[in-house]
Write a structure and sequence with these properties.
By secondary structure, the protein is α/β, with parallel strands linked by helices. It has eleven helices and 18 strands. Strands 1, 2, 3, 5, 8, 10, 11, 14, 15, 16, 17 and 18 form a twelve-stranded mixed beta sheet that branches. Strands 4-9-7-6 form a four-stranded mixed beta sheet, with helices on one face. The protein has a two-stranded antiparallel ribbon with strand order 12-13. Helix 1 crosses helix 7 and helix 2 crosses helix 7. It is elongated. The termini are far apart.
Length: 482
């Protein structure tokens, strides 16, 4: 039977509805207040654990003249490593396995050209038209040498593309370059003269080779006599690895990384020959490439992110914080690191590279490389939605930045490995210049980027999200020779 309604019933119902609306409003207001309080509490926590004073202290020291640009193989980079290890200890991290006070040592051999003689069709070529990149100590070729490939680079060919393809192949190559490519050739000549670097114990049967280049009009070879030698030196260097063990998912690793090496220092004469713009940071003494943005900013970020997650104490997954060396000379630190553990254990890699200046999207914003390669970016942005923030896609795809930092090493192994940055690389006048010092940074913007990354990656840390793996078939391999 349907209920009957009289005036009294209607009044009582109206009163009940009004009361219900009132109570619902109170509940919604209370819920809204709690959400606001939670967000404020998060902000307060971030301000306490990722504070500007400590960030400034870290990046200032790492980019100081005392460290002389943190050049690989120098005593100065060892000072930087010790500082990072000390900060890890202060934060409360534990050393990774097989490390010495957080330092993961490995050896690199540096292979520098010593001599090169090229005789083609009984004509001896002068040294100024020759270049060599070799991973072996000595070699001798003639016109009958097996497995020697000869390339003739014509006027309309792309020298960079061809050398890139040769580098992917490895093996023995003679490259005859038309004089029209002389300007590009000179760049390779200077690059190869600095020598090559290889990890000790790297499999040279699958990683290595020889390229001899010569600028010449010759396109047909009747006779050939080439010999070359190199000097090989071995140096020990280290990554700095700290760990925050996971609670319920200890075998799943979230990796935060940045490289702490940079370009070191050069004499005023060297600086003059390398930089025609004499307005840049000249002095009577040595010119120092402080590397404040590249990448003292990133190293400061991972240290302060470690402090944040240690204090918040919500990491169900194991967190690993890696400061890599040798990024500037070929990414050997991350390559060695990746061989010491099972890459499938790494849930994601957050590689932080140059966050010291505002991005094109505004102060405090950040973008990531290779967003289309995994679901990581999409998942991180869900965590930022409530704060009306987002991580943007790489605005400089033509720069191939996905391949230009340590993330590429892990991505080649299938790890959702991406670099996070704020640099405006197309406009940055300080990149790889002596002016990349502490005075060029916007530290407030940098702090906001670190806080954004802390918020965005929290679901990774707590085990609530797992990004898709990267398809290794779609990742370009690293060169085998240079």
């Amino acid at each position: 039977m349907s209920p009957s309604f009289n005036n009294n019933n209607i009044k009582r119902l109206s009163l009940a509805i009004a009361l219900s609306i009132s109570l619902t409003g109170c509940v919604n207001e209370e819920k809204s207040d709690k959400q606001t309080q939670a967000l404020q509490a998060t902000e307060t926590s971030l301000d306490n654990t990722i504070n500007l004073t400590q960030i400034t202290k870290d990046v200032t020291y790492l980019a100081s003249d005392e460290l002389n640009g943190r050049g690989n193989f120098s005593k100065d980079i060892e000072k930087a490593a010790q500082y990072i290890a000390q900060r890890y200890q202060q934060v409360g991290l534990v050393p990774a396995n097989n490390t010495d006070n957080f330092q993961q040592y490995y050896q690199i051999k540096s292979i520098t050209p010593a001599s090169l003689t090229v005789v083609i069709n009984n004509n001896t070529l002068s040294a100024d038209v020759l270049t060599m990149a070799s991973t072996v100590s000595d070699f001798t070729w003639n016109e009958n040498t097996a497995n020697l490939t000869i390339h003739v680079i014509k006027k309309d060919d792309n020298l960079r593309t061809i050398l890139g393809n040769i580098n992917q192949q490895g093996g023995q190559h003679l490259v005859l370059v038309d004089p029209s490519h002389e300007k590009t050739f000179k760049r390779y000549q200077a690059y190869f003269a600095r020598g090559l670097n290889k990890l000790i114990n790297e499999n040279e049967s699958t990683s290595g080779g020889i390229i001899v280049g010569a600028v010449t009009d010759t396109t047909t070879i009747n006779s050939l006599s080439i010999s070359g030698t190199t000097n090989v030196n071995t140096t020990k260097i280290s990554n700095v690895i700290g760990v925050l063990p996971g609670k319920s998912l200890p075998d799943e690793i979230v990796l935060y990384s940045a490289h702490y090496d940079h370009l070191g220092g050069i004499s005023p004469d060297e600086h003059k020959s390398n930089h025609s713009d004499e307005s840049s940071h000249q002095s009577m003494g040595q010119q120092i490439y402080n590397g404040a943005d590249d990448d003292a900013s990133g190293v400061s970020a991972i240290i302060n992110l470690a402090n944040h997650f240690k204090q918040v104490n919500n990491n169900e997954r194991t967190l690993m914080f890696a400061a890599f060396s040798a990024e500037e000379i070929g990414g050997f630190g991350s390559k060695y690191f990746s061989a010491q553990l099972n890459p499938s254990d790494i849930t994601a890699m957050i590689n932080i590279e140059m966050i010291g200046k505002p991005a094109k999207f505004g102060a405090g914003t950040v973008w990531m490389t290779g967003m289309e390669r995994s679901t990581l970016g999409e998942q991180l942005n869900i965590a930022l939605k409530e704060q009306s923030k987002e991580i943007y896609a790489d605005p400089y795809p033509e720069q191939n930045l996905f391949y230009r930092s340590d993330n590429a090493t892990l991505a080649r192994l299938g790890v959702p490995a991406h670099s996070f940055s704020s640099t405006q690389l197309d406009k940055d006048q300080h990149y790889h210049q002596v002016t990349d010092d502490i005075n060029s940074l916007d530290l407030n913007s940098m702090q906001q980027v670190i806080k954004t990354l802390a918020t965005a990656t929290t679901p990774l840390v707590t085990g609530k999200i797992t990004p898709s793996r990267i398809d290794t078939n779609l990742v370009k391999g690293k060169g085998l020779i240079f």
